[in-house]
Write a structure and sequence with these properties.
Mean pLDDT: 84
Number of domains: 3
Structural class: alpha+beta
Helix content: 25-40%
Low-confidence stretches: 108-128
Bound molecules: zinc ion
Number of strands: 6
Shape: flat
Strand content: 15-25%
Distance between the termini: 43 Å
Number of helices: 11
Order of helices and strands: HHHHHHHEEHEEHHEEH
């Protein structure tokens, strides 16, 4: 999906085409039903359900922005109060953060800004423990939460003793793929993610703070009455890249 907020007709048609193929594989009856609905420009709860299941945010976005569906209407699925509740639950079930945000109307710009600043800081997951954060630039999900894929390359050789091929070596490949959107994350590798996930490493450059060292900075505020600068707040920074270390790390290092 493009970075702007409007779904172009090419994007939409491409998404509908591709979803249509998925539905045909799932069930030809479903596909006929879906094709009829698309012919009538009918984006109902069922269409959006499958758009979410097969991850087509453009379709969901188009339906909502063009007011083709009333999210507050009662859901056909009686377990849910409204269509919105139902679709949110589907988005969460398929761990689709982007569609979740589209449904809740959460501004994408906010997240874009966040990800373009390459924020990999630690975030709270609610129970006072922390998980590292790397936001996928394609689908805006935190890959430490939604998962990422790393492949292994195994070399096989034929063994006369065993009368079969056996693995003789394996190595973990560096490429990282986002598990949520299946896009390759070119800007990072597995090694970097391993480093990020350790509390004693810098959350930006990934270097071990216990080797690179940290720098403390005291912010001084000018006091007009006393006509001098007074210390206001101390912060600690990675001495390699100057990234400020976060509260969790401060706690870890007893600062
Ligand atoms: Zn992704
Ligand atoms: Zn650093």
């Amino acid at each position: 999906m493009s970075n702007n907020n409007i779904v172009t007709s090419e994007e939409l048609n491409e998404a509908i085409d591709s979803l249509s193929k998925n539905l045909y594989l799932e069930s030809p009856d479903l596909w006929i039903d879906f094709s009829d609905k698309m012919g009538d420009n009918n984006f109902d709860e069922m269409v959006l359900f499958f758009a979410i299941k097969y991850n087509y945010p453009a379709i969901v976005k188009h339906a909502i922005e063009s007011h083709l569906i009333k999210l507050d209407s009662p859901s056909r699925n009686k377990t849910f109060k409204s269509i919105k509740d139902h679709l949110l639950s589907v988005a969460d079930q398929y761990k689709n953060v982007q569609i979740h945000n589209i449904l809740t109307g959460k501004k994408e710009e906010l997240q874009k800004e966040e990800s373009s600043n390459s924020t990999h800081d630690l975030i709270s997951n609610g129970d006072n423990s922390y998980i590292p954060k790397f936001i996928c630039p394609h689908c805006n999900s935190n890959i430490f939460k939604s998962g990422y894929i790393v492949s292994e390359e195994v070399t096989y050789k034929y063994s006369k003793d065993n009368n079969k091929t056996i693995p003789i070596s394996s190595k973990t490949l560096d490429n990282v793929t986002c598990d949520n959107c299946k896009n390759t994350l070119k800007e990072i590798n597995n090694d970097f993610l391993q480093k990020l996930s350790s509390v004693q490493n810098c959350i930006s450059c990934g270097l071990d703070l216990t080797s690179t060292g940290i720098v403390d900075k005291i912010k001084m505020i000018y006091d007009k009455d006393l006509s001098k600068f007074l210390p206001n707040k101390t912060s600690y920074h990675c001495s390699n890249c100057d990234q400020e270390i976060n509260d969790y790390q401060k706690e870890h290092f007893n600062l």
